[in-house]
């Protein structure tokens, strides 16, 4: 991991319109997406992937919701990076979310850049990329679009909805907005509202993007520029929040990168600097800067209780859904206290809820990593729910 | 298996029946009518919840203090959360459960009276089992050996025990009277796990019962 060159391989805007290795559903003028911002998005499209087979009773569908910078490629090779799916440890044949038992659906969210309509998609009214003309979207808008996708797929009730971080927010929104359509919910490393600290981190990231002269007021796709540096800095800052002090110390400490002594310059002397630079640079190859602004905004706006008169328990009143809430000890972005608030609200609503905190030093990112206890808990929870749902085993 | 090295367990070496289930848990399960909604406070590794689900077909939930216990329960498919009887019962609404069970945990809570009151607020009935500190072996150790009692089910030293509020069967009955709770049923078990004679007087239970199980309800 030395100096990493900016790759020439880069997401073309067309990936946003015609995603590779994905399924696509287009909604015409007759089926607009009603947004919380008070406008209708139409026409629009959803890119998604499915794994496994829907059973004849249509009762084994599992919706996997991706996080801020994730996409639909949850359990198969990413068409841009060539890397494994972002949750292949969790989703696949014989994995805790077992594609031999469940029909897994993973859509790209509204506002993203991998094929579902977002700011880098072509605005049909102008024939040009939306840019900042794209309406601001919310987590509830994402979920509303996903519900339309399920209608299209003929899935009335989901066996389970699972996701971490922003994906977990979608899980909670699903359970609150469509309780009758969700049999089991797995919100992992998330919260019912974004904290002031998290909004603050997001704002720093957005300002980094907008401070890049190549951002051009959001019109970079039209002007043939790309705010790579700004987006890379945003990613570097955010990436620190996904880790933990202990994990950084364990992985890097104060080790030098390919040298024995400091260079007395601003090169990436330390391994941790080199690592962060790599994270930033590889991120801009696959992600759209404006999408980063829109999706961080959606997370900032998320406040489930606000939609229920400020009382969180009312969001889940009488819910038939069974929940499994999971947090990680070293996650300081969505600390265990956030998950506990979810659990308290669910208890107050007499919901059937399990809650486990997993000991790890890997921080927020732990939900994406090899955590055997996480896998055992998800598997056990889904097996138990599967028995109650009549899915056998 | 309960061992002393498990820091989150409050008692140890409780007699088991031929099927391998703990005798006190079978007794507790027998007090639960089938098909109800049950909260097991301090559910450990989920043995009682599993027993209740299998034999009584209940909708069971659990609270457990130890992280290991919780994660083990959730991995078994049980609805269990990490929490503390002393602090987390307050979050539950009134009448949320048919039964709230506190098995071998009362003596480890900080505020046993408050816990008991919450149990009968959230549940229509409560089932409480606890080791009897009035058992003759406990009394003899304090009387003749002059040290804090250590027995098979209470194996801890005074300085490392989680059990901070020991009580006798008599004490517990007095608490029930004080907070106006109906004692519907009670069973005392001797050291071999056999129930004492039902018509035996309370002083006999208090002396020869190693542990007791009470089925409680609100006074109507």
What's the arrangement of secondary structure elements?
The complex is a heterodimer of chains A (393) and B (220).
Chain A: H1 14-17, E1 23-27, E2 33-34, E3 40-41, E4 44-51, E5 61-65, E6 91-92, E7 97-98, E8 103-107, E9 122-123, E10 128-129, H2 139-153, E11 158-164, H3 166-177, E12 182-188, H4 196-211, H5 220-223, H6 228-242, H7 245-251, H8 271-284, H9 289-301, H10 312-315, E13 322-328, H11 336-348, E14 352-358, H12 372-389
Helix pairs in contact in A: 2-3, 4-6, 4-9, 6-8
Chain B: H1 23-30, E1 37-41, H2 47-56, E2 59-64, H3 67-75, E3 79-82, H4 85-88, E4 97-103, H5 112-122, E5 123-131, H6 136-145, H7 169-178, E6 181-189, H8 202-208, E7 211-218
Parallel strand pairs in B: 1-2, 1-4, 2-3, 4-5
Antiparallel strand pairs in B: 5-7, 6-7
Helix pairs in contact in B: 1-2
Structure description:
- The complex is a heterodimer of chains A (393) and B (220).
- Chain A is α/β, with parallel strands linked by helices and 393 residues long.
- Chain A folds into two domains: 17-192 and 308-389, 3-Layer(aba) Sandwich (Rossmann fold); 199-295, Rna Polymerase Sigma Factor, Chain: A (Orthogonal Bundle).
- Chain A has helices at 14-17, 139-153, 166-177, 196-211, 220-223, 228-242, 245-251, 271-284, 289-301, 312-315, 336-348, 372-389; strands at residues 23-27, 33-34, 40-41, 44-51, 61-65, 91-92, 97-98, 103-107, 122-123, 128-129, 158-164, 182-188, 322-328, 352-358.
- In chain A, helix 11 (336-348) links the parallel strand 13 (322-328) and strand 14.
- In chain A, helix 4 packs antiparallel against helix 6 (228-242) and helix 4 (196-211) runs antiparallel to helix 9 (289-301).
- The longest helix of chain A has 18 residues, at 372-389.
- Chain A starts with 13 loop residues before the first helix and ends with a helix.
- Mean pLDDT of chain A is 94; it is low at 1-13.
- Chain B is an alpha/beta fold.
- Chain B has a single domain, classed as Vaccinia Virus protein VP39 (Rossmann fold, 3-Layer(aba) Sandwich).
- Chain B is built from eight helices and seven strands.
- Chain B has helices at residues 23-30, 47-56, 67-75, 85-88, 112-122, 136-145, 169-178, 202-208; strands at 37-41, 59-64, 79-82, 97-103, 123-131, 181-189, 211-218.
- A seven-stranded mixed beta sheet of chain B has the order 3-2-1-4-5-7-6, with helices on both faces.
- In chain B, helix 1 packs across helix 2.
- The longest helix of chain B has 11 residues, at 112-122.
- Chain B is globular, with a radius of gyration of 16 Å.
- At the A-B interface, strand 13, helix 11, strand 14 and helix 12 of A face helix 3 and strand 3 of B.
